Amino acid sequence: MNPSANKQLNPYSQNLKKEQDELVIQYLPAVRAMAYRLRERLPASVDVNDLISIGTEEMIKLSRRYDKEQNDSFWGYGKKRVYGSMLDFLRSLDTMSRSNRRLIKLVDHEITAYLGEHGKEPDDAYLAKVLNEDIEKVAEARNSAMIVSVMSLNEQITVLSAEDTAQTVEKDQLMEMVHQILTHFSEREQMIIQLYYFEELNLKEISDILEISESRISQIHKKLLAKIKEELGMHHG
Questions:
Q1: End-to-end alpha carbon distance in the chain
Q2: pLDDT tens sequence for the chain (237 residues)
């Protein structure tokens, strides 16, 4: 028996591995595009290369489990999971303590109030002064708030409500609720939410399409979240 024969992969495995690697290489641009789109909606502290490498790692894992007999499109099969892995990574950056969460809400509240009055967002120095907080802490809370705003509705509600009410709300139920709430919003506001959640455009793209400031879009988005939390409170009270 030739001892080196054992070490070689059999041709089938070798071929399979080659196919898997080719899949990964083929869809790398899609992972990069996904990472860049997500990155645009995040604070400067998040490195796009981290998102790309997390997404690529997930794609390699998925390629090993992919069965083209069962799924004709690898990207169709893996896209959600790749995106999910990037969101998990963001969530790990965003391990907020209770006190942080309180500050995030305060910062958010002040930004919204200032926006309503002045039509633009305040700077960190103003927030630090109003809240009597350290400017670094305020900047950090603002970053976390941005990270949270990128997560899906389900996740946002979980992160922002102390109790995990979202756990008991199925996605379809949630969407149903969103549609219900939206009937009370103006057409323009509905359009913005539609683009943001259902078309997954980022704030800058929506801002260009509708010629409306990104801060105003954030404001409408927060109004929706507040309403959803109110509804959830009523359902689970």
A1: 73
A2: 444 444 455 666 667 677 777 878 888 888 888 888 888 777 777 788 888 889 988 988 888 887 776 667 788 888 888 988 888 888 777 555 556 777 888 888 888 888 888 878 889 999 999 999 998 888 888 877 776 666 655 566 555 554 444 445 565 676 677 777 778 877 777 777 777 766 666 677 777 777 778 778 778 877 777 777 777 665 544
Burial class, 73, CB count within 10 angstroms (exposed 0-12 / middle 13-18 / buried 19+): exposed
In this prediction the pTM is 0.46
For the domain that residue 157 is a member of, what is the CATH number? 1.20.140.160
Mark which of 104, 120, 150 sits at the end of a domain: 150
Question: Within a domain: residue 3?
Answer: no
